[in-house]
Model the fold of this input.
Amino acid sequence: MRAPAAPPRFILYSRQGCGLCDEMLSALAALPEVGAYPIDVVDVDADAATRRRYGHKVPVLLFAGELVCHGHLNPGEVDKALAHNLRPV
Done:
């Protein structure tokens, strides 16, 4: 029997002292539809590969492993990501 899939989650790639990152996290947490999902904040500088991939774009928001937006929170893109990833199969 297969283990149940992990529930989808948000990942916010951020860096210490990044005002845009703090703004995105606050705005994301304020969206009512986001409250049901964990938000993991990951230091983009902690891993060289992650820094190369996202370091120049922070903040970068992913949901269920897919890019949602970067730079500034786009609530419309958050809605699209939730609808796309949570649709029935």
About this structure: The chain has one domain: 10-36+45-85. The CA atoms of residues 9 and 38 lie 5 Å apart.
